[in-house]
Amino acid sequence: MGYSPLTNRYRPTSQSSSRLNARVDMVVGHHMAGTDAEGVARAMISGSRQVSSNYIITNEGEIWCMVDEGLRAWTSGSGSDGGKGAAIDRRAITVEIENQSTVGWTISPAAFNAFAALLADVHKRLGVPLSRANMIGHREEWERWRASYPTACPGGLNMDAAVATAAKSLQPAPEPPKKPKPKGKKMILIRNEGGSIAALLPHPTTPELFVRQGLTLDGWGALAGAGYVYVQVSNAQFNAYAPAL
Ligand SMILES: [Zn+2]
Fold first, then answer.
1. Where do the DSSP E strands lie in 35-171?
2. pTM of the shown model
3. Using one digit for the tens of pLDDT, what is the confidence trace for 143-196?
4. How remote is the CA of residue 153 from the centroid of ligand 1, in Å?
5. What is the pLDDT of residues 37-85, one digit of tens each?
6. CA of 219 to the centre of ligand 1 (A)
């Protein structure tokens, strides 16, 4: 299955196991409860702790692949949940995010953006729905299914915002606002004398367009000073005045 093209570093650990043919249909976000991504990566690689995740995301927004997506990482397993956490790991892409601070276990903006980009990428490549049913934080495993174990993980990672950001990134760019079309509009040349509309002259190219002297033109904008100005009117506006000419 390989790994995301967003991966900055490929640092595979052998701490992984088979997905046992489970279909990947989830992403589980974790935080490290710590600010040392390098130390966590080394622990995963060396086996000094029996843990791993498919990806690590650093405070700088780097994405490290630690376990190929085709394999199950050891992230949510628990000895006392009847294998439910392990079963979730088998169907999930798991991501450990470095904390920016130990106070409130915050996530850096760069890490958040990288995580959202990875969610969008996993959705596009693997078809995991961009939905909070399928993309969850670690603690929701316990809250929803009594899987894994009670935990504050993923700390300050806002899963709602991450999934929403990922979904937004896949929307087509909004089209630039179109210029109002002159379709159905007519031009009238107005001569203004000293702040009130005193006379109206025919349009030079459509001489049938003129309106009588002294007409009030509501909503067409004020004319400052003396001079001439073209104004655009709708057919309806023109027809309302034209019969009186
Ligand atoms: Zn966790």
1. 55-57, 63-65, 71-73, 92-97, 135-137
2. 0.72
3. 999 999 999 999 999 999 999 999 999 998 888 777 665 555 555 555 444 334
4. 5
5. 999 999 999 998 899 999 999 999 999 999 999 999 999 988 899 999 9
6. 62
Distance 171 CA to ligand 1 centre (A): 30
Q: Read out DSSP for 204-237? A: SSSTT----TT---TTS-PPPSSEEEEEEEEHHH
Domain extents in the chain: 9-169, 185-244
Cα separation of 215 and 209, whole Å? 14
Distance from the CA of 154 to the center of ligand 1, in angstroms? Answer: 6
Distance of CA 199 to the CA centre of its chain: 55
C-alpha 14 – ligand 1 centre gap (Å): 20
CATH code of the domain made up of 9-169: 3.40.80.10
Distance 168 CA to ligand 1 centre (A): 26
